[in-house]
Specification:
five-stranded mixed beta barrel, 4 helices
Length: 237
């Protein structure tokens, strides 16, 4: 027999032997038989409790809750529902920057602030829970362009009671809005209507609140008056 033929026959025989060996190994189930194990009887793992879902509703009657407005503002699906046109939100006033107004900005309209006077845009914040200024809240601007307008309003509304209506509301002639009466004060429950988004512009000042959003006020209804009227830190004359 030729050398090449003998080599081919030997190679074929080796392959057949290797295949038989592998098949025999795969078919032998006695090497590692299945042994059923008893159920675990040791200590149970300590797992954290599942988080509770918010129970705050999106709406309160015919208006949004603060939670609902912010939820929709942050939502890709629902953001246009609260930003495309004015909305109404009901909540409690939990903060106001009227008491924090710097003295340099407290004067009647027609008088300019000093050059080094840099007051905030007059604002108040509302939340779903009375007194909770640390949680979700919406900033409200656009009801007075500066603290001089609020100065005039405090003087004009000084003798009015919460149930009264001013015969001639103080008007911000730049924003073309009536300054609300009563002026927003902490712990009042209010129903506000206006344009809502993450930022608003008041005259030339941009106000941005990425977390809670900003409303440019068009209308405010006081449902429950505050125990104390809005006031600057020092009484005005």
């Amino acid at each position: 027999m030729h050398t090449f033929a003998r080599f081919s026959l030997s190679l074929w025989a080796s392959g057949v032997a290797l295949s038989a060996s592998m098949l025999g190994a795969c078919g032998n189930g006695d090497d590692n038989p299945y042994k059923p194990q008893p159920a675990w009887s040791g200590n149970k793992p300590s797992l954290p409790a599942p988080p509770s879902l918010p129970s705050t509703p999106i709406h309160s009657g015919d208006s949004y809750t603060v939670y609902g407005a912010i939820h929709h503002l942050r939502s890709v699906l629902h953001s246009s529902e609260v930003t495309a046109s004015p909305i109404t939100i009901t909540g409690y006033v939990v903060d106001s920057n009227i008491p924090r107004a710097p003295e340099c900005a407290i004067h009647k309209t027609g008088k300019a602030d000093p050059p080094d006077c840099n007051p905030e845009v007059p604002s108040f914040w509302i939340a779903d829970e009375k007194g909770n200024s640390k949680g979700l809240k919406v900033r409200v601007v656009g009801w007075a362009r500066n603290f001089a307008v609020i100065y005039d309003a405090i003087k004009a509304y000084a003798n009015l009671k919460p149930g009264d209506q001013p015969k001639k509301p103080v008007t911000d002639d730049i924003l073309n809005v009536a300054v609300p009466f009563p002026l927003p004060s902490v712990d009042a429950k209010v129903k506000i209507t206006g344009a809502y988004n993450v930022s608003r512009t008041v005259v030339s000042d941009m106000v941005s609140e990425p977390l809670g959003g900003v409303m440019a006020l068009q209308k405010m209804e006081t449902i429950e008056p505050a125990p104390q009227p809005a006031a600057f830190a020092k009484p005005i004359r």
